[in-house]
Specification:
The complex is a heterodimer.
Chain A (H helix, E strand, L loop, with lengths): L7 H10 L6 H18 L29 H5 L5 E2 L2 E2 L6
Antiparallel strand pairs in A: 1-2
Helix pairs in contact in A: 1-2
Chain B lengths: L5 E3 L15 E5 L26 H8 L3 E6 L33 H8 L5 E6 L5 H7 L2 E4 L19 E6 L2 H11 L41 E5 L8 H16 L3 E5 L7 H16 L18 H12 L2 H14 L5 H24 L2 E5 L15 H6 L5 H5 L4 E9 L2 E8 L5 H11 L2
Parallel strand pairs in B: 2-3, 2-4, 7-8, 7-9
Antiparallel strand pairs in B: 1-3, 4-6, 5-6, 5-10, 9-11, 10-11
The chains are: A mainly alpha, B alpha/beta.
Chain lengths: ~90, ~425
């Protein structure tokens, strides 16, 4: 038995955090599947602490203006635009 | 083209001359092509048309290649069978009742069916090697940082690389020669600055991957990862062993190696990949691009409804599990532990590669499943990735080369090399196909 029981309420909470609506069937299916998958992830508890070294280094370039997409190109895939801006749903 | 290998069939002509002037190439549909829609296999991006080319697409065009279409794939690369595509499943050209593997299933199927000479896929946890093995073709997952990811729609960016697929090791390596190299637009290809911050040579600058396909394995030491044979299908292991015997006959020596960390690799991989996915896919809100649904009302509600419609089940599953793993109270338990496991896997590979020039495993522990067979059980599908995901966790290069058939279905041999050791794995793989 998993130490992290997942119930439908928890699946719905995570879906809300992730901004993904689910229908009732999806909530049911995910509740069962998440319990099984998270139980499998439990085995990570056995992993010791391991030091790691970063392979990558920061890359800098001079802060000079370079060519980028123009406004029209940047907006071409937006469903709604207004005066050169993206237009989204109201915030509250 | 009856396998449904392409989402969009459209021709992009390259330069008149170049190393790929006679070659046709299929490009996975998560790699941006200017003016040609790039769906990532998702309904969310059904009408998304990139305003720019991915760096690898520019390199293909400069090399004279003719791009013949955008290849079908698991939605956003999330799957191992190409059945999660919103544009329908792809059939395996070797046996149409079976899946082609995934997530780059369309790319591998196009090459296996002869619809394209070569293809580009992307490999986050095996997505080039898996379909290459299942379709009986060659696929390479390059070392992290060898190939630019600029223009690749991100799923789990700390793990993924774009990789080539072809019918022979030499042709596949030649495509890697074309796409590899540093790119100012992807800083993860620019790791190699010297102490003064000056550019040092990128590993691809003086490499010749195609030239390494000389079949000369005399004196090469091949480490067989015993941990990854235990769970594999007997029919797969039999073909794998025969392939090793053949390599020994050509002068290679095989030794057994064991990596304790591999027991935790699949768990670590999925926690990291899902966590990165939950963050990367937050950009699909239907405002700047993607399906908006046109919903009125509160910002959050409108996003949540657009994303319900635009994403398929596996994508939702991974976004939610990733959100869960990163949420307050669970971050240390899952994400931090997964990072420890990743460092452990890296260390184990370094040790194993001290004992051998390259490492060998079956690419996939199973034969290609039947279409529809594996859809209902996500965890079983994740476990199918046991042999491929450790390589992504360790940032290493690996190749899948056809090793033979079992029950009329292809079996792939995976060869794993040290960091930027692409020439070694190409050399060893070219001896397998002899």
């Amino acid at each position: 038995m998993s130490e992290t029981p997942v119930d439908a309420e928890e699946v719905e909470h995570v879906a809300e955090l992730a901004r993904v609506d689910l229908d009732d069937d999806e909530v049911d299916a995910f509740t069962t599947q998440f319990a099984e998958i998270l139980e499998y992830f439990e085995a990570l508890d056995e992993v010791p602490e391991v030091e790691s070294e970063a392979d990558l280094v920061n890359v800098m370039r001079p802060d000079e203006v370079e060519a980028s997409l123009d406004q029209e190109e940047a907006l071409q895939n937006a469903a709604e635009t207004e005066d050169g801006f993206f237009k989204g749903p109201r915030v509250s | 083209m009856s396998q449904n290998a392409f989402i969009t069939e459209e021709t992009i002509e390259g330069a008149d001359d170049g190393p790929l002037a006679d070659a046709t190439v299929a490009v996975k549909d998560n790699i941006s092509t200017e003016g040609i829609r790039t769906t990532c296999g998702s309904a969310m991006l059904e009408s998304y048309v990139p305003p720019y080319d991915a760096t690898v697409v520019e390199r293909l065009k400069d090399a004279g290649a003719t791009i013949v279409g955008k290849a079908n794939m698991d939605e956003f690369g999330m799957g191992g069978t190409t059945e999660t595509s919103a544009y329908g499943a792809v059939k395996n050209p070797v046996d149409e009742g079976h899946v082609p593997g995934g997530s780059s299933g369309g790319s591998a199927a196009a090459v296996a069916a002869g619809d394209a000479d070569l293809a580009l896929g992307s490999d986050t946890g095996g997505s080039v090697r898996n379909p290459a093995a299942f379709c009986g073709v060659v696929g390479i997952k390059p070392t992290y940082g060898l190939v630019s990811r600029y223009g690749l729609v991100a799923y789990a960016n700390s793990l993924e690389q774009i990789g080539p697929i072809g019918t022979s090791v030499e042709e596949t390596a030649a495509l890697l020669d074309v796409i590899s190299g540093p790119d100012p637009k992807d800083s993860t290809t620019r790791f190699d600055l010297d102490e003064d911050g000056e550019d040092a040579a990128h590993p691809a600058a003086d490499s010749n991957y195609a030239g390494a396909a000389d079949g000369d394995v005399d004196g090469m030491t091949i480490g067989v990862i015993t941990d990854l044979l235990e769970g594999a299908d007997d029919r797969v292991v039999e073909v794998f062993e025969a392939s090793l015997e053949d390599l020994r006959a050509q002068g290679a020596e095989t030794v057994e190696v064991s990596l304790d960390s591999l027991e935790h690799a699949v768990q670590a991989y999925y926690v990291i990949a899902m966590s990165e996915a939950s963050s990367n896919l937050a950009r699909f809100d239907g405002v700047r691009y993607g399906q908006s649904g046109g919903y009125e009302g509160n910002w959050n509600d409108a996003f949540a409804r657009a994303r319900e419609e635009g994403f398929g089940e596996e994508v939702k599953r991974r976004i939610l599990l990733g959100t869960y793993a990163l949420s307050a109270g669970y971050h240390d338990k899952y994400y931090k532990k997964a990072q420890d496991a990743r460092a452990w896997v890296k260390r184990d590979f370094d040790d194993a590669l001290d004992q051998a020039d390259v490492l060998a495993t079956p690419t996939m522990p199973v034969l290609p499943p039947e279409l529809g067979e594996s859809l209902d059980d996500p965890l079983q599908l994740y476990l199918m990735d046991a042999n491929t995901v450790p390589v992504n966790l360790a940032n290493l290069p690996a190749i899948s080369v056809p090793a033979g058939e079992a029950d009329g279905l292809p079996v792939g041999l995976q060869l794993i090399g040290p960091k930027f050791g692409e020439e070694s794995i190409v050399r060893a793989a070219s001896a397998v196909e002899d």
